[in-house]
Amino acid sequence: MFEYGGFILIDIIATAESYAQAESLLNAGVDTLYVGGHPFGLRLPQALSLEEINRIICLAHSYGKKVTVACNALMHNEQIGQLTPYLSQLAEIGADAVTIGDPGAIFVLKELGLPLSFIYDAGTLVTSAEQVAFWVGQGASGAVAARELTLTELIAMQQLLDQPIEVQVYGPTCIHQSGRPLLTNYYNYTGNPGQVDKPDGLYLRDPKNPDSQYPIFEDQDGTHIFSTEDLSLVGQLKIMHDQGLNTWKLDGVLLRGERFVQIVALFDEARHAIESGAFVPESFCNRLAKLQPASRPLGTGFYLKNPEDVH
């Protein structure tokens, strides 16, 4: 979130799966690219090497844009042991910020004294302004809000804080993550070997709802299960802007390639329409529906619910 002449500017963050997509996203209007790699970053469209991240940072900086690197894993001893050289190299290649939710990782970052900003990202734990304020006191420059919060709660949080609260405005929601290889274990148990990674398009199904499809995949960091719908707050963007929620995250973990870029470009167009007073939510909702894959319905998740109905 940036301020110019007293006017709060909207910051669009988007995941990038490659250098080529990063360039397309920058041309589509993205302000901050979100990337990362194993074993520190979770639920990314593609795990990238430091060399690939370096190239993307150089590219983004040539556009005058930023790169945030995911270090959002809950870390074990061996990961903490590898973290110091990783963070040092990120600082050296000019990463603008990292997302961290593990207090041990935050301790390591602070102990190193690197010129590397951190954004507090502890998943479902980021549910109050007071918690964010605590981590701001520890050096955080902002926070990633829990996806289970309602807009009412998010607005109340942001009004109590000077630092930006990042809100996911598009993409799937992770509803379960395990560090264990659950799919591999399942195939071993059944004696029917199968592929477990993202391109295989595996789903779980609720026995009570034969039409339900919960995407599931396994990677080096464990097993990840996602919501049946993709979140979309395109119809609520002006309300968010009016209430100070101006840091928008678009997640392409399940949507590869050019279609994700087109959706990001649509949100950038919505941003400009809001800033110029020409935003018509119904038009942008209809256009997003045409870009959205037929297999992934759109929904608003918890955001439009009454907080009393969620808790």
Explain what the structure shows:
This protein has 311 residues and is of the alpha/beta class. The protein has a single domain (8-174, 228-303), classed as TIM Barrel (Alpha-Beta Barrel). It is 37% helix and 24% strand. It has helices spanning 19-27, 50-62, 77-93, 103-112, 129-137, 151-159, 182-190, 237-242, 258-276, 281-291, 307-310; strands at 2-4, 7-9, 11-15, 32-36, 66-71, 97-100, 117-120, 140-144, 165-178, 203-204, 214-219, 222-232, 247-250, 298-299. Helix 1 links the parallel strand 3 (11-15) and strand 4 (32-36). Residues 1-7 have low confidence and may be disordered. It comes from Sporolactobacillus laevolacticus DSM 442.
Q: Quick summary of this structure?
A:
The protein has helices at residues 19-27, 50-62, 77-93, 103-112, 129-137, 151-159, 182-190, 237-242, 258-276, 281-291, 307-310, and strands spanning 2-4, 7-9, 11-15, 32-36, 66-71, 97-100, 117-120, 140-144, 165-178, 203-204, 214-219, 222-232, 247-250, 298-299.
